Amino acid sequence: MNKLIAGAIIASTSLIASAFETPTMGWSSWNTYRCNISDSLIMSQARAMVDLGLDSAGYRYINIDDGFQGGRDKATGRLLINLNRFPGGLKPVVDYIHSLGLKAGTYSDAGLNTCGNYWDRDTLSVEVGLYGHEDIDCQMFFNELGFDFIKVDYCGGDPEQNNQRLSLDPETQYRRIARAIRSTGRDDIRLNVCRWDYPGTWVDDVATSWRVTHDIWCGWESVRDIIAENLYLSAYARGGHYNDMDMLEVGRTLTPTEDRTHMAMWCMMSSPLLIGCDLTTLRPETLKLLANKELLAINQDSLGRQAHVLHADSNGGYILVKDLKKLYGNERAVAFYNPTDSVIVLKTTLEDLELTGPAPCRNATNQAYLGTVESWMSITLQPHETEVYTLTGKSRLMRHRYEAETARLGMYQELYNPHTVGTAYYTHDGRLSGGVGVALAGVTPNNDILWDDIYVPAEGDYELTVHYLPDRDAKHFYMSVNDGDGMRIDPAKEGESTTGAKLKCHLKSGLNSVRLFGTGRIPVIDLLEVK
Ligand code: GLA
Fold first, then answer.
1. Which domains does the chain have, with CATH numbers?
2. β-strand partners of 189
3. Would the pLDDT of 516 be above 90?
4. Residues with CB under 6 A from ligand 1
5. pLDDT in tens, 174-222
6. Atom of ligand 1 at shortest distance to CA of 120?
7. Can you spell out the DSSP letters for 425-454?
8. Atom of ligand 1 at shortest range from CA of 194
9. What percent of the chain shows pLDDT beyond 90?
């Protein structure tokens, strides 16, 4: 049994999260300033963070992104700082940030050159990446200068984005960097992997967050597409490790509705929240949105779970849910999200939300009490609009449906074409419930599907039904409960009707894990039903 699966089972003994870091909140220089940064600019943003009271709202990190480097000393190998932009070097800036009670973040690249060197032609950021200088740079960043966070980009390791055509293996290089950070003796450094796609389950071992998309830009299409890319990655946000949807464009040129959706969905999806606008000229409505206590509480919730899709409507809208404070407790956050350009209506029932009523309900986006929900909710949404509600049910109903798109895939990655490398992925297909399922699992047992969150209120025998798409070429596979022996499932062939494979299983009270795996290619898995 691999480590991740064992980890999931250990974690499942308690419904309440043990202590871990919630998503990083702060400010970063890139979105507004790109490489045009300086010591005075960074310090004035840090000052504004405190003056605006955003530090008390939870924003603690001031992150210096690309553009501060000044090459590398050929004789000593030491990283140099751009003295036009930072005449006194970085130390006074970091000290100033710390003197305000904030934390300081830095930036580097896994390879030789940074992205700014390649894309922004920042000539001084050549050979300033960590590759070959992992230890010396980490010593400097964390022991000498006192940084608390590092974002590690990847242009220098991607032959398409560096002039040397250097090509690195992301896992090997990020593991090396993580080891270098650990060997500084600091155990409080947050590492953000910036590889622009979900890199693979190995990233849990090295990073507290990882970018799952290409760079955000200040436009609705960018916000919408990033949300779409993160809709089915909820299984990878666990206990202090988060999918990073990129720095916020809130407060720049999006419409007020789009700004609200951007903020609301980053909060629902437990993304790091790094403000990307100029804090010294912040508009009052932006401050209000960024400091919205109820949305921030959802982002910083102690369970650290990312919302998953409860319902994908044929009108293009989505309903997402997220447990708060306690897994399978009575408190849930629900987002009604309209990515379309039309007015839509989204409906759900308390039963679908697995709550009983009357359920007091707050509109978290407006920070207002809405009343009690007796049995259903119907929300009209303007184009690009999102409303987030928090509900407190009288009690929690048992969950019966566990969609495959909420399960963790042991070898999930987005760096290489899954068809070429044969790793399982989330597939869209109109025949699947919710329109999404898991394809290409099996062949090696680690290329598995794991639900680590199957919850039943009492110990006993339950009927578990695996729904899948019949497929002439699919091989038999196994289901294992709580790490027990695999029970064999022989899938129906294409053309044969199926109501799914039913198995009687003994489940313990509380959380259980169910794993599907095979040594041949298993059929497309749709969902697991528990009765
Ligand atoms: C990449 C990253 C961005 C930013 C720039 C800096 O594009 O994805 O977030 O850090 O590099 O050059």
1. 26-299 (3.20.20.70), 308-392 (2.60.40.1180), 400-530 (2.60.120.260)
2. none
3. yes
4. 30, 65-66, 114-116, 153, 194, 215
5. 999 999 999 999 999 999 999 999 999 999 999 999 999 999 999 999 9
6. 12
7. EEEE-TTSGGGEEEES-BSSTTS-EEEEEE
8. 8
9. 93
